[in-house]
Specification:
The chain is α+β, with helices and mostly antiparallel strands and 176 residues long. It has helices spanning 63-67, 126-139, 157-175, and strands at 2-3, 6-7, 13-15, 20-24, 29-34, 40-45, 53-58, 74-78, 81-82, 88-89, 97-105, 110-118. It contains three helices and twelve strands; from the N terminus they run E-E-E-E-E-E-E-H-E-E-E-E-E-H-H. Strands 2, 3, 4, 7, 8, 9, 11 and 12 form an eight-stranded antiparallel beta sheet that branches. The protein is elongated, with a radius of gyration of 20 Å.
Length: 176
């Protein structure tokens, strides 16, 4: 059994085998819309994911990159256990291991099971992984404060402009 995370400066944690820099999933916010046709917006706390770990960064070449994990995702369960109960994971030294991470995928605003295939040995030498993680934290010592947006509630501004342009051109043609 190997430890899943090791503490880093600034309250971050490094999961060497998965190639993740993690932080507590606290004080996160999301955008909400209100008013007629939702023309106004505000932020509100993002609830229900506080027991998870926020992905601050995904290290280059890591198993997590290959699995599609991205910064701002929130992992709240591993192999069916809530994150707070995970103390260590067993990785094979002879064949790949698979980790099933129940993850809030930030850009989709949805919960998904992400399967991370972990090779028998670290994907790079341990010292290189630790140095890359230290460099990332030094370059980005604070969490991204951008509120989460639900794409099903928040239309893409470019698409809105396109549709408004189409409506305007139809109105012009109807006047002729």
């Amino acid at each position: 059994m190997r430890l899943i995370v090791e503490p880093m400066a600034g309250g971050f944690e490094l999961c060497v085998r998965l190639g993740l820099i993690l932080a507590p999933a606290t004080n996160l916010t999301r955008v909400i819309h209100f008013g007629m046709a939702g023309q106004h917006e505000a932020t509100t706390p993002l609830r229900g994911l506080e027991d998870g770990k926020l992905v601050h960064a995904v290290l280059d070449g890591s198993p997590s990159v290959r699995a599609g994990v991205q910064p701002r995702d929130i992992i709240f369960a591993i192999n069916g256990k809530p994150w707070r109960e995970v103390r260590g994971l067993i990785f094979s030294d002879h064949q790949p291991s698979e980790i099933a991470a129940i993850t809030f995928v930030g850009w989709q605003f949805a919960v998904r099971e992400v399967v991370i295939r972990v090779p028998p040995q670290t994907y790079r030498p341990l010292a290189e992984i630790q140095q890359q993680a230290a460099d990332v934290v030094a370059g980005r010592p604070t969490l991204d404060p951008t509120p989460y947006r639900n794409p099903r509630e928040d239309p893409d501004p470019g698409m809105v402009r396109l549709l408004e342009g189409l409506k305007a051109s139809r109105r012009r043609r109807a006047c002729w």
